[in-house]
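sorry for the late reply, my laptop died twice this morning and i had to redo everyting from scratch. anyway the thing you sent over, i finally got around to it. pasting the sequence first so we're on the same page, its 621 residues, then the predicted structure underneath. double check i copied it right bc i was rushing
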Amino acid sequence: MTLTDNGTNPLGPVLDTLLPTADTAQTRRAALGLLRPHRGRAVGAIVPLVANTLAGLATPLVLGRMVDEVVRHGADAVDSLHVWGAALAAIALLQAVLGALSHYLVIHVGENVVADLREDVLDRALHLPSKDVERSGRGDLVARITGDVRVVTDAASNAVPIFVTAALGVVLTLVGMGTLDWRFAVAALLAAPIQLRALIWYLSRSKPVYQAERKVEGERAQRLLDALGAVDTVAALRLGPRHLDAIADRSRAAVEYSLRATTLRTRFFGRLNLAELIGLAAVLALGFHLVREGTATIGEATAAALLFHRLFDPIGALLSVFDELQEAGAGLARLVGVTSLPRVPEPIDPPRAADSSLELATVSYCHREGLEVPSGVSLTIAPGERVALVGSTGAGKSTLAQLIAGGYEPLSGTVRIGGVEPREMGAVLTRRTVALVTQETHVFVGTLADDLRLARPEADDAALEQVLRAVGADRWIDTLPEGRQTRVGAGGHPLTAPQAQQLALARVLLLDPLMVVLDEATAEAGSAGARTLEAATDAVVKGRTAITVAHRLNQAATADRVVVLEAGKIVEEGAHRELLAAQGRYAELWQAWTAQRPTPELLTTPPPPRNLHTPRTQSPR
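ok and here's the structure:
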């Protein structure tokens, strides 16, 4: 049993296929690459930082000179003390100005670097293949974009400025002690071996702890998303306690790692205190010896002791921020792991689909080793045909929908849309050719019009009005405070699940694809909402090839053809009435679905005939 597994995980093992984490060399190269565009401003920030540190060194030297003035002249030194006191005040004022300026400039550079990193990570995350995100779990990606970006940002605005300032302070202070007498610098360095040994001890033990803590926090985020993303199902099946136990298990692991890091940090600071004691004792003893021999004045010995004492803060800060830098380094490595994932290049002149036909030839896909779902599926769909995919949970319906839409690449076999494979078209053209609408919709922050124009930024108000009217959304949009200019999304006007799905369907109409894949697009709407969305769906699929993953079997009943999947294979195929008459698997599913519902009209009233073979040959936008 490890620290991350206390044996109480009730929902099975946490995913071990997390997104990659960069190694130290990759992280260092990425950090330098991010800093390169800002190197001019970085140099500009270092100059006042060095000047501020040099000004700070003058204070112990002035105090030492004041001690010598008093020793030599006694009461007659009052006038010169006034002068030196004014010099101290001027030094303090100069330090305040230079400190504020250098701190601002360093933070400015750090924040710009982190902003570039955040954009790179988000850009790469948005272009990750769906299979990679699903295998690693959305929680891992969310934890990186939120938690890891936060710790890196905090380090850039806090730890990095402190580290740079402290490092300069240590180096220049040792130089200042050497100008008084080189032996003072040597005495001060007696503390260095203890500090260095303490640092090596701490880094070797704390780095894996911080890395594991970031990983566990990503796993906890995944557990939270699993529970919140299916909160209705969790409540209905009374799975709340199990999910809470799973979240608590990951939280306990995170707390244990945090406590372990705190213990290491406490022991680390104890070693630093010992080093400071030894170093200060050495400087004071040497000063006493040099003053007694007459090779140094009392003021010089005082200045050396004050300079060493001044080292306490920068050395303590330098070593203490290693804690924050360690955590930020672990977070940066996880972020660089995302940005370093290989990109699939887009073809320069991709072929376009000749029509909206679909051909699957012995297509298989493997979510995990030894489980192929679907397996060897072959299917041909004519232009303009509406096909419903039905089957029990785990039959492979949603995976097949992703394969058709280009979200997954088949393990074997081929998928062709209008004679062209999605990988030949590239991701951009495939998304314009095939639109996938799932039950998981998102309302983006902004005006409702902006939300729609994500599909086609150049769309004018007349186009927006047309698609909204087509999906029936104009009825409730007209009642909004500012119509299409009403702000929606987080912090804006709340939308119901059917309204959010209507927006998604309206975006599909704006995109104007050749083919539409609907993966249970009305499953979460409720009965009344489902009727509204079914009418909107009819408007979207009109004139297009449509593949529907049918959660409600009345969707299958109105399709031109029903394809029944079980265990990743097609077990039945045909029209709704034909399959009912065959008394096979589809008839069993239909009987179970209609057991608590009134007999639908479509059982007694056949749908009107449609021309299925009128191809749409226009090129998608």
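The first strand starts at residue 358 and ends at 364.
thats about all i looked at so far, will dig more tmrw
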